[in-house]
Write the structure tokens for this entry.
Amino acid sequence: MWGGAEELAVNLQKNLVIAGHHSEILRIPFQWEPATRISSQMLMVRALELWNVDKVIALKFPAFYIRHPNKTLWLLHQYRQAYDLYDAGQTNLPPGQVGDDIRTLITNADNEAFAESERIFTNSEVTRRRLKKYNGFDATVLLPPINDPGLFTGGQSGDYIFAGGRVNGMKRQHLLLDALRQASPNVKLIIAGPPDAPADGDQLRETVARLGLGDRVKLDLRFLPRETYANYLNNAAAVAYLPFDEDSLGYVAMEAATADKALITTSDSGGILGLVKQRETGWVAEPTTSSLADAMSAVFADAAVTRGYGSGARDLWNSFGITWPKTVETLLQ
Amino acid sequence: MKLLIFTPGLKASAIGRMTCLVSNALIAQGHEVVIVRTEVNALLDRPSHDFNTRMISWSDEKQVLEATAECDVLVYQVGDNYDYHEGCVTWLARLPGVVCLHDFFVGHMFYAWAQKNMEKADSILKHWYGDEVAKRFFKFANNKAFIEGTKDQAPLTEWIASQALGVITHSRWGTPRVVRSCLGSVRVVPLAYDAPGESEVAQGYEPNKFGRMKLLTVGHINRNKRVADVIHAIAGSPLLRQNVVYRLVGAADPEMVIELSTLANSLRVNLVISGAVDDTELALAVGEADVMSCLRWPSLEAASASAIEAMLYGKAAVVTDTGFYSEIPDDCVEKISHEDEVADLRAVLERLYSKPSERVALGERARRWASSTYLAENYARQLVEESIACQKLRPIVTAKAYFVEVMKRWGATDDLLRADDTMSALAVMG
């Protein structure tokens, strides 16, 4: 699996080196399924020792179980199926006592790892609140910089809305297709990115065919070269990104803001709402077909307004002052 | 090698006597030995065997920890008697080592230990034998029912073996459970034993002295030694009733003395109950015996000191064809079927009485075989080999213990620890 967390790790390492440090990435394999193997994978990580380094920066579950006397957490992901997704009925843990036992184990192990960490940062306010709610630990939000800002210089305001990033049920690209049918006929959509599973791509292709949207939708479902991805984004009229309760601002949204693009998201998209302000930087729709259709239509109703929202998004993002040098300095404090 | 050996030290303990022999052999082979006495506090000041080395008490924690820090391996002599082995159970749980397992049933010791550790005991029973066995374990009406109800289902050898880095035991019959539960190697080594003064005793021996064949049973007199059945076997034969004196040497409860005396009188069997005697008297009793009865049922021990002693003294011995006794060569003892015990025994005793030369030849074969088998030097050598193997195993055991400790700290239930997906991940360590 290669996603935002992996990109972040690569760029963190690169920027640590730029700042004059020796730095390496230790990738730790982890598989969610079957859930009954989670505990042994947790143990495996707990057995790892890195006494020959001065500092460990741990990013996500279960990597943050690694032992080191000088460990800082930059928490991107807990095992959400044991926390908020469990409460939402979206867990992969088995029902009954076995699932309860694994959940207890994860909570206790997390608490132990958090307690032994020198400092805890989170990648978003959502992650910080979740950590406080479920584990009782305070943390400081440290928003991640984007990795290659030079690629996102903006461009023409094209005739399509761009929805980029990983394709899966949680990212809800299918909602955009449903809404497109009700949106103004001049609205077009490009969905581009790698499906997590073949079924995720199949579902989108089937929906496009079923709704007869072939002439208004382009599906480019693969792992895109960064330049291709940036080209789609730079030439879009607006960028839509509506994951369910995302932890962070989301790279797609941050890159769009860097490129002066207006944003569309939904009211239940979590961390993205830190960057999408209704009618300031874009549109915050309800996660319904009609509300999203209205937002998508609005993108092309008044081009000047849309461009204004794009500028607003860029200004808001820049106001955060999130750069790699500052981030590295904070993490090494 | 520096060995710290946990053992009962008092003279009444046959395990203590055996350990004394091994300790002396280890020292003779150039090793260093420190003895930790393991009896309950009330017995710790009783006179002990002469171990010929430094001795400390298991209850002196500071001394034990200091001695542990200086030794290469810890050795625990474990038998089914809590009063003699409290220190073994206590320290084995804290500091794993090589276990010399003398019994393939340690339920009595577990029962006594559990009185102060009921929660742990319940968990151990459930872990090894399941909820139903755990429910029943402490509810048997008497000792006989307890042994019958637990000897096959819950012998608790797993409890001890699972805490050991390796196990030495003294016969094969009970090893499958030990092998399944012990992380390290399990080896069968003949018990170390001797027959002090055997030559003097042999010189004074007269077969069928005063025209009677002297049959002897030694040890604590309880039902397990089948004394009543021996009396019945003698009574069932006019030849034996007329010509056999049956002697019991060893402690016996008053009720048992009365019961056996009454039985023997009613059946007109010549029974002599001598009670507990010192080592010298015991050696004399063995020396003048013509035949020794070493019958046992049930047989739960890994080796029988009295049967070995009988063979070392060159005596014709009668044993039950079960457990440890079955593993003795057929031409060194007379083996009796438990199912037909009285009739079998009667026939064997009649033959041994009628053919003294056959009896002597049997005893001589047994003496030769036992003298080259139950050697303290061999035991000491194999104990050192096992200790070296356990030292190599220690990192694996430590790693597994670490993982279990981490899982428990995280709140893992026994079910989660036992789950296939957890166990299979840990199996990679061997």
Summary: The beta strands of chain A are 56-60, 71-77, 119-122, 140-141, 160-164, 188-192, 217-220, 238-240, 262-266, 282-285. The CA atoms of residues 11 and 200 of chain A lie 28 Å apart. Chain A has a mean pLDDT of 94. The first helix of chain A runs from residue 4 to 18.
